């Protein structure tokens, strides 16, 4: 701004200098807040999924092998991606794969096939099928319980089945009040937390006794699909779609301590222990990032534009990367959007 020399009084000149100094400070602050370095996550790569059509469901990772595994539900395939050289292998002949679980020893993949009503066990080195576990209607989310060396699969109108990780044999089951969506297992504790959206509840299970020990209401919200766990902080994060909220539960009290507005159509939520952040992937086309100031206080830090219908993904702590699955829409091909955590 050009100043006309009218030679103001000394006091006014000092005031102009002070205001100019304030403007400079504000400009520096705004520049810092809007610069890429200030972003919680920043996109740095795209992995193409040429030829993959339809909905993409959940992902798994092999960090040591630099592989990301994608359940391409609508394509009836699982895509195995090498993130170093972008090479890709495809497992076909599946029936709407929904959940995928990778176990490093041995190099094995468990695939929950929703439409085929089964779980496939595949050797990921040779891509040879080792076993099929049938009779699992609408097999969906899948997790590994390290303490008991079992694979947990949500399926049917309301059940979690436990499979021996080495053999695939069924070793138990827990009945639920409806079809289970996302669920999380404590690492150091004995509990499992399960989203049951048809009942509008979070069901709590004793994993060792294999029985339900609690049912928590979803606090005037419904369609609770994704979930993440902060075990050290005793907090559980549940995403709902109606209305679109992130509910934060105190896992000791079983009560909601925070309700945070999020984007529509969420299907995956992740907790970043190192940076104390929550990443909410929303199908309307963005990732909402919340900073955890303390166990009960969360601040909306960033909303990252992704792609239409991109509502699933995977956070890999070992790589400090967030992968977001973007399905094919119109003339835009399917792809995996890769974000680096800062």
Strand proportion, as a percent range, falls in over 45%
Helix and strand content put the structural class at mainly beta
Number of helices: 1
State the end-to-end distance. Answer: 36 Å
Which blocks of ≥5 consecutive residues have pLDDT under 50? 1-16, 19-37
Mass-distribution shape? globular
**Annotation, overall tally of beta strands:** 28
Main sheet? 4 strands, antiparallel
Integer average pLDDT: 91
* Order of adjacent strands in the largest pleated sheet: 1-28-27-26
Rg for CA atoms: 23 Å
Approximate helicity band: under 10%
String of helices and strands: HEEEEEEEEEEEEEEEEEEEEEEEEEEEE
Question: Which key terms come to mind for this protein?
Answer:
single chain; 342 residues; mainly beta; four-stranded antiparallel β-sheet; 28 strands; disordered N terminus
Structural overview:
This protein has 342 residues and is mostly beta strands. Helix content is 7%, strand content 52%. It has one helix at residues 10-34, and strands at 41-48, 59-62, 67-72, 77-82, 88-91, 97-103, 108-113, 118-123, 129-134, 142-145, 150-155, 159-164, 170-175, 183-185, 191-196, 201-206, 211-217, 222-230, 235-242, 244-250, 255-261, 266-272, 277-282, 286-294, 297-305, 312-316, 321-326, 335-341. The radius of gyration is 23 Å and the shape is globular. Residues 1-16 and 19-37 have low confidence and may be disordered.
């Amino acid at each position: 701004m050009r100043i006309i020399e009218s030679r103001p009084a000394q006091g006014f000149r000092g005031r102009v200098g002070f205001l100019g100094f304030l403007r400079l400070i504000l400009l520096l602050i705004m520049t810092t807040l809007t610069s890429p370095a200030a972003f919680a996550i920043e996109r740095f790569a795209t992995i193409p999924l040429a030829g993959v059509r339809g909905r993409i469901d959940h992902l798994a990772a092999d960090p040591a092998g630099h592989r990301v595994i994608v359940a391409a539900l609508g394509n009836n395939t699982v895509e195995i991606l090498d993130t170093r050289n972008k090479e890709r292998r495809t497992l076909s002949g599946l029936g709407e794969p929904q959940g995928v679980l990778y176990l490093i020893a041995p190099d094995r993949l468990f695939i929950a096939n929703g439409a085929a009503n089964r779980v496939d066990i595949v050797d990921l080195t040779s891509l040879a099928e080792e076993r099929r576990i049938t009779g699992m209607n609408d097999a969906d989310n899948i997790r590994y319980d390290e303490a008991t060396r079992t694979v947990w699969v949500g399926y049917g109108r309301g059940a979690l089945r436990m499979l021996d990780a080495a053999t695939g044999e069924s070793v138990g089951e827990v009945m639920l009040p409806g079809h289970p969506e996302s669920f999380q297992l404590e690492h150091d504790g004995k509990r499992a937390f399960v989203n049951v959206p048809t009942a509008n509840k979070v069901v709590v299970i004793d994993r060792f006794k294999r029985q339900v020990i609690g049912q928590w209401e979803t606090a005037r919200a419904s369609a609770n699909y994704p979930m993440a766990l902060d075990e050290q902080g005793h907090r559980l994060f549940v995403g709902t779609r109606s209305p679109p909220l992130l509910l934060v539960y105190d896992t000791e009290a079983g009560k909601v301590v925070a309700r945070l507005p999020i984007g529509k159509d969420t299907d995956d939520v992740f907790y970043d222990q190192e940076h104390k952040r929550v990443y909410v992937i929303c199908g309307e086309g963005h990732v909402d990032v919340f900073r955890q100031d303390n166990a009960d206080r969360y601040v909306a830090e960033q909303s990252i534009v992704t792609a239409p219908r991109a509502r699933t993904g995977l956070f890999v702590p070992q790589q400090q990367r967030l992968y977001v699955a973007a399905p094919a829409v119109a003339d835009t091909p399917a792809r995996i959007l890769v974000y680096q955590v800062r």
